[in-house]
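Q: I'm a student working through a structural biology exercise. My instructor gave each of us a protein and asked us to get a predicted structure, then write a short paragraph describing it. Mine is Multifunctional cyclase-dehydratase-3-O-methyl transferase TcmN. I'm not confident about reading structure output yet, so if you can add a plain explanation after the tokens, that would really help. Here is the sequence I was given:
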Amino acid sequence: MEANEERATPTRAARGTVTGLLFGQLATYAVGTAVRLGLLDRIGAGTRTADEVAADCGTHPQATLRLLRALAALDLLTEPEPAVFEATAAGALLRSDAPDSMYALARIFSEPLMTRARERMEDSVRTGEPVFDAIFGTDFFSHLKSEPELSRVFNTAMGQGTRIAAQDVPPAYDFGRFGTIVDVGGGDGTLLAAILRAHPAPRGMIYDSAEGLAQAGAKLAAEGVADRVTLRTGDFFTEAPAGGDLYLLKSVIHDWNDDQCAQILRNIRQVLPPDGRLLIIEPVLTDTVGPDTSALPYLSDLNMLVNVGGRERTRADFETLCTKAGFHLTGLTPLPAPDPYVLIEAAPV
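A: Happy to help. First, here is the predicted structure for Multifunctional cyclase-dehydratase-3-O-methyl transferase TcmN. I'll explain a few features afterward.
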């Protein structure tokens, strides 16, 4: 009997792993529902009863209690007394007014914009193409452009998703030796602002679409660096703006296929001076997945597959892209864990 129990234990644990994964989608939707209803905003920094939260939100009391208890089981809330709830440190990040809020990030990742293509991942795995286009009738970024409110939330989410990198990147690289840093696809300027605050000598430029730059002016002003940054609208598939000696690409390359990425890099190569540098900031996949490998970049890879047709890449993949565009890699600097990003420096050949 004891031997049978020993043999059964790994099977039980394995079943628990699979069951947890199968319910993962419900966790995503529970978080998305919480942010859309503003539950964490209603709870705030104190404690609230489920009935109080339901009254504030205009939701069904028992259904609200059930959602709050699910959030407590996910470690976003605690329930110190029956039907009384308080936010954990993680739950507090879902408040829209939190200084380090992840509210917009949680909202966008639970929107149909992101989730509908995931439901048809099988199609993308069969074809190698993003299924988003077939569902929405256009590509991801064109659809986003047609939805101004969603575009605003997306921009805010990308800024929120960059905050840890904005802490880790500035001290990890010698930005002070450059005259002008051009952040290509830099969005609201969260990263560039952090770099310029830490390094007072360089000036900066953000190059992005009009939609991507929509919140940049306000963000740069709030960070106190607006007078050091030029905003330029344009299409990085067509050209890169001249005038920089360091060009940044954070979370841009993974959005696109190899040919598109090579074109972006070639455009930068055409305007980069001989002593200039390219700095790509992306996760770098290992050649094999080990037992301690984080699943996050591989799940991101699948998200890129179904939604935009891009991919996460290995070091060899980045070397190939850079070679095609007239660059060679000069160094890789991983950021401190748990930050998944690596600083990939390249110089013109």
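A: Here are two points you could use in your paragraph. The chain has a mean pLDDT of 95. The chain has 18 helices and twelve strands. It's a good idea to check both against the output above yourself.
Q: Great, thank you!
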